[in-house]
Amino acid sequence: MAKKSCAKSFCSVLQSVFAAAGLYGLLYLGVLVIQRGSLPSPKDLIQNPPTLRPGSPSSDSVGQPGLRLPSSKLKVEKINPAANWFNRPESLVVPRDDYLGKRPNVDTVANLTKLVEECRGSYENIEKMPYVYDCLKYMEEGEKEYFYTPARGERASEQPPRRAEYLNSDGADNSLDEYPSYKSASKDSIGQCNGPIVPYHVYWTGPATWRVELFIKSHFYTQNIPCVRLWLWLDGDRDPKAVDKMLNHDPLFEKFLPFVERGDIVLKTWKFPSRIPLPKGDNTDGVGYYKTPGKRNSKNETLVADGLIRDANDQEWLVLTEKQMTFLPVAVSDAVRFVVLHLSGGAYFDMDVVMLRDMRPLLIGDEHSFAERWGGHPSPGDYNTAIMSLTANSSLSSYLLRGGVRMGLNFHPRVIGVMSVKDRRNREFHMLETAAFDPIWTEFNWDRLGRCTVPCIHDYGQVFKGKNAFPLKDEWDSYEGEQLKLASETKSRGHFWEIKTKRDEEISERTTTTEISTQTAVTIDRDALSKAEYRIEQDNYPPTNRTLENFFRGAWTYHVHNQWLKNPEPSSWLNVVQRAQDGFFSHGRLNPYGEKWDGPAIPEYEISWEYT
Ligand SMILES: *[C@@H]1O[C@H](CO)[C@@H](O)[C@H](O)[C@H]1NC(C)=O
Ligand SMILES: *[C@@H]1O[C@H](CO)[C@@H](O)[C@H](O)[C@H]1NC(C)=O
Ligand SMILES: *[C@@H]1O[C@H](CO)[C@@H](O)[C@H](O)[C@H]1NC(C)=O
Ligand SMILES: *[C@@H]1O[C@H](CO)[C@@H](O)[C@H](O)[C@H]1NC(C)=O
């Protein structure tokens, strides 16, 4: 009897365990569906564990080692012999590429206070915060108000490089007396900046994916090349050989090697430092130094406050305890940005960001420390640090760094944010609204008021969609401009960028190698492919009137938010971005500032074979 009831209770325990597991599975699936906008395949479930919420900075920038490009055999098998895709015009309309006008001057500064106030409203009432459309409009049209050139003598380019806040701001370790004259970049030379060179930082683990490509290309597409450097931090705590792998064994990164050579991209191994130098001044956040400092150690250093050491040269250091060093943070990249910006200044970007405008005016003013808001959250401490900037070696950067270390290496932006509000230091750390860097986040969280953005997009999956999806319901609801001219009205054929000839060559190369490697007689009649008449009604991904000009105009960046395994469908918004970039790098299109590309050739994006 006793035995039986024991078995029974065992059964019921098992039952609850199964029920719980089932429920967990459902929730898990639910999260995936919400994130991706579609049901995941079982393969995804194994390869792509969901991250809990979009924008969770803890989950960003991690490569997908499981991701492999499809084999060439697969590619050939996937080619649709009816070949409609092959002759698909790039666009239905003629895009205006130079829509941003002239690039801001090296000394142009954005008044962050103005931008914050204009898009947030007052500090207490944040009455403008939910009006994303209005903020975008302001950023698009208000340059005259929020951009300015400082008075003579106060411009960044006029300051001695020795005192610059950015590491290596003159390309000569801050040793020059003044900045050289401007020289634009060429194939082999990065040129010369007539003002401080600003470092941009990104962090990455694993091999490069098309997302790395998207980020890097967006950088070259929009930034002032001689005046920036892209530092790519690769996690050396996880993989000490990461830099070597990316330089020598990464098929995708190969296309960017000329930029490593030219000096645009600097590959760096990230290792958590055991001590970090701090500037002069009170680094105890007002608590004060120990009345009786500790004994000098063998190196003549003393512990002067909690976690602070002063060396024989009176330099103060933030030290990590033995314990902290062995329990390095799970969210490494959350911490990396604070350390790296403190040490070298500039800006930090998550890799899943697409740059849309020149960032420089946001980064060279006197008070350029900023991050963005966490969605439409109203609290003044709700930061998101996907994109942020700090003045190097400053009181604020030291304070934030020390705070994160003291909280057990917790650099979650909202934790750091709560701390800085409590200590009344958050106003030094500007909070820009989502419109600036992540224009659909507020919408996605159902917090948007006023009009929808242009394009009107409600979730992060939408920009990937091209299939039978034009126009997506209300995509153009907020658009008030003129209708763009149809390309067919200006040219008889859609191929105004000669893209087909290039693709032709690519295909022939690929087909040949496949034939050799697989020994199967896969024959693709390329001539037939290229001659086949394009029939829009047979195309699953027909060209549209989407152009970069109408992609969140005014925003500095667009944040893709994870979704690392997804590829953009042809004719989707992200694909429009890709083609604008490739058109700029390889067939004569202009960038938004009306400039031509003079740098090394950059190969185009891989065709998304799954969508032909
Ligand atoms: C920046 O904007 C603020 C707020 O509108 C204004 O008070 C300040 O004078 C501006 N600063 C500069 C340098 O224009
Ligand atoms: C940091 O600032 C202090 C002055 O506060 C200066 O002495 C020191 O050289 C600076 N360190 C770096 C790395 O720039
Ligand atoms: C240690 O520092 C003190 C005070 O700055 C100095 O007098 C002393 O000579 C130093 N000792 C060594 C070994 O450097
Ligand atoms: C694009 O086409 C849609 C649907 O026909 C239209 O509503 C929208 O205004 C067009 N946009 C532009 C920029 O021409």
TrEMBL record:
InterPro entries: GlycoTrfase_DXD_sugar-bd_CS, Nucleotide-diphossugar_trans. The keyword Membrane applies. The keyword Transmembrane helix applies. GO terms for biological process: carbohydrate derivative metabolic process. The chain crosses the membrane at residues 12-34. SUPFAM superfamilies: Nucleotide-diphospho-sugar transferases (SSF53448). Residues 152-165 have a biased composition (Basic and acidic residues). This is SnoRNA binding protein-like protein. It comes from Mollisia scopiformis.
